[in-house]
Amino acid sequence: MGVERGLDGLRKVLDGLGFPLTRDEAVAAALDAGADEEIVSALRAMPNAEYNEAKEILAAVPLPEREPGSHTESARSRERGPH
């Protein structure tokens, strides 16, 4: 069972998590929730810090609908389409 993609999926992953938490704890929570590679990659790209609330994480992750130039590699591959 996976979660939605993008920011909506990330919000669902973050719902109910206890804060503060580190980047690595956020990545582990996403993996446990069945998040897709885009969300996991975006979380791994965040600065290694302690986050005190979900909105700090939402502001720190490079997801396509927020910053088109900062897509994860998997998102860029989908945009390019089949070779």
From TrEMBL:
Q: What segment(s) does the record annotate as region Disordered?
A: 61-83
Which intervals carry biased composition (Basic and acidic residues)? 64-83
InterPro entries xrefs: DUF2795
| Name of the featured protein | DUF2795 domain-containing protein
Organism listed in the record: Nocardiopsis eucommiae
